[in-house]
Specification:
Blueprint lengths: L2 H4 L9 E4 L6 E2 L13 E3 L3 E6 L5 E7 L4 E2 L7 E4 L3 E6 L6 E6 L3 E6 L14 E4 L5 E6 L6 E6 L4 E5 L4 E6 L7 E6 L6 E5 L4 E5 L4 E6 L10 E4 L5 E6 L5 E6 L9 E4 L7 E6 L4 E6 L4 E7 L6 E8 L6 E4 L11 E8 L3 E8 L15 E2 L7 H5 L8 E2 L9 H15 L3 H6 L13 H10 L2 H6 L1 H5 L6 H33 L4
Parallel strand pairs: 2-6
Antiparallel strand pairs: 1-30, 2-30, 3-4, 4-5, 5-7, 8-9, 9-10, 10-11, 12-13, 13-14, 14-15, 16-17, 17-18, 18-19, 20-21, 21-22, 22-23, 24-25, 25-26, 26-27, 28-29, 29-30, 31-32
Length: 503
């Protein structure tokens, strides 16, 4: 039997996590001590938000991503709530808008200034009042603009139109007990909930009905969570009757038995799942754990494939998750977490090791962008649409080494004698448009161009009669560069296929 048949082929098998350097952490942050199974942290490509300890009400900190190091105790906060903040969520369609839910029974939506806070923010853009008990869950609609979901300890789910501050749907009587988690489907047509009665429900908010329900999804009494996957399946975390932590995958068309079920360990911290729909990888972080486990979800049994574990020394109080469009694609970064310690926030970067510096199409398919697919009124009218996808290729920035090669190429062009350059036709790219920039940058370093160009000054000294000869030599060099550029592109394409496990 060949080795390939024994080991499952996956491009994510060697994903590894690495914390950033100390100076790139956010220090001296007093993370909230409130007893609630929330992530306490929300991140987008512009800002980091962390729920913090506050006297006389609730507050959270909003920091520009670049503001690392020690955070002064007097740094301004968002502090309009009269009770502790329990959950926060950035708007997926506006990087400067964040919503918060609090023990004061209100939901508030805030507009963050372009460069962050320079003074405490106490006036929200809108206050949404409709819950009779504390609001523990906040979640923006993934594709409709200004649609916000809130769930409270009154077991009620409310859907709001933030743009008009009106209540769109009030879902009462669907949950007999405390709601642990809410997750929208990818197109926002439905959402799934995990409840204290141990049931997982799939709900159509516009009809106000439960589409599917699985009772006793996990037998244990401790909190469980459920998230929608891109293909409509549901991934849950919870506890067994013997208090062992479990993961399960469910088909919404048949909730009788799980497609896959795995037991992890017997720790007592609630498991927080984070899902990347582009790579179908689920990251599981336990509150109070010091590790992040990650699994790949596939179409073949056993469906949930363990990849690896990132471990550190310090336990995590909460965890933030960066959207895909905020990652550094030039370093093959496929996920970035913001781990909350007791007094610090530490970014952790998940990377797929690749030898090539080129943009990796297989790691970065088109992902959900910041544009809303529809307005709130269209969604209420019954329209359903998936997220508006954007390519991450524009975010690709070549490495410094490749920049240096480009610089060397331009220096070679400058060494051409002035008369020859004046007589020559307008400069054309040294490689055809189909050649990748990386190949163009690499080509000069692999050719014997410098010696040939070095002979140009002596050729010119023979007078203008040698001009035709010089032009022919330049044309020959250009043809050689173009040919080698094509060859480099082919070789790098073969290398990429080999690295991905394709023969």
């Amino acid at each position: 039997m060949s080795f390939r048949k024994v080991v499952r082929q996956s491009k994510f098998r060697h994903v590894f996590g690495q914390p950033v350097k100390t100076e790139q952490c956010y220090d001296d942050i007093r993370v909230s001590r409130v007893t609630w199974d929330s992530t306490f942290c929300a991140v987008n490509p512009a800002f980091l938000a962390v729920i913090v300890e506050a006297s006389g009400g609730g507050a959270f900190l909003v920091l520009p991503l670049h503001k690392t190091g020690r955070i002064d105790k007097s740094y301004p906060t968002v502090c309009g709530h009269t009770g502790p903040v329990l959950d926060i969520d950035w708007c997926p369609h506006n990087d400067h808008v964040i919503a918060s839910g609090s023990e004061d029974c209100t939901v508030m939506v805030w507009q963050i200034p372009e460069n962050g806070l320079s003074q405490p923010l106490t006036e929200p853009v809108v206050v949404l009042e409709g819950h009779s008990k504390r609001v523990g869950i906040i979640s923006w609609h993934p594709t409709a603009r200004n649609v916000l979901l809130s769930a409270g300890c009154d077991n009620v789910v409310l859907i709001w139109n933030v743009g008009t501050a009106e209540e769109l749907y009030r879902l009462e009587g669907l949950h007999p007990d405390l709601i642990y988690s809410v997750s929208w489907s990818r197109d926002g047509a439905r959402f799934c909930t995990a409840c204290k009665d141990k049931s997982v429900r799939v709900i159509d908010p516009r009809r106000g009905t439960v589409v599917a329900e699985k009772e006793r999804a996990h037998e244990g009494a401790r909190p469980m969570r459920a998230i929608f996957l891109a293909d409509g399946k549901i991934f849950t975390t919870g506890f067994s009757r013997m208090s062992e932590r479990q993961l399960a995958l469910w088909d919404t068309e048949n909730l009788e038995e799980p497609m896959g079920l795995q037991e992890l360990d017997s720790s007592n911290g609630a498991l927080l799942p984070f899902y990347d729909p582009d790579t179908n990888v689920v990251y599981v972080c336990g509150k109070g754990d010091s590790s992040i486990r990650y699994f790949e979800i596939t179409e073949e049994p056993p469906y949930i494939h363990f990849l690896n574990t990132f471990t550190s020394k310090e336990p995590q109080r909460g965890m933030g998750w960066m959207p895909k469009r905020g990652l550094d694609v030039s370093k093959c970064e496929i996920a970035r977490f913001y781990k909350l310690h007791e007094r610090k926030c530490e970014p952790i970067i998940m990377t797929v090791p690749r030898k090539s510096d080129l943009f990796q199409d297989d790691l970065y398919p088109d992902t959900a962008g910041p544009e809303a697919a529809m307005e709130a009124e269209e969604w209420v009218a019954g329209r359903t649409a998936g997220p508006v996808l954007v390519s991450l290729r524009q975010a690709y920035v070549p490495s410094k080494q490749r920049d240096l090669k480009v610089s060397r190429r331009s220096l070679l062009h400058e060494s051409r004698p002035p008369p020859a350059a004046a007589a020559a036709p307008p400069a054309r790219p040294t490689t055809p448009p189909s050649t990748p920039p990386a190949a163009a940058a690499a080509a000069p370093s692999r050719l014997s161009a410098p010696p040939a160009l070095g002979t140009l000054p002596s050729a010119h000294t023979g007078g203008s009669g040698r001009l035709e000869e010089v032009l022919q030599e330049v044309a020959a060099l250009r043809a050689l560069v173009a040919e080698q550029g094509h060859r480099i592109a082919r070789l790098e394409e073969q290398l990429s296929r080999l690295e991905n496990g394709h023969v």
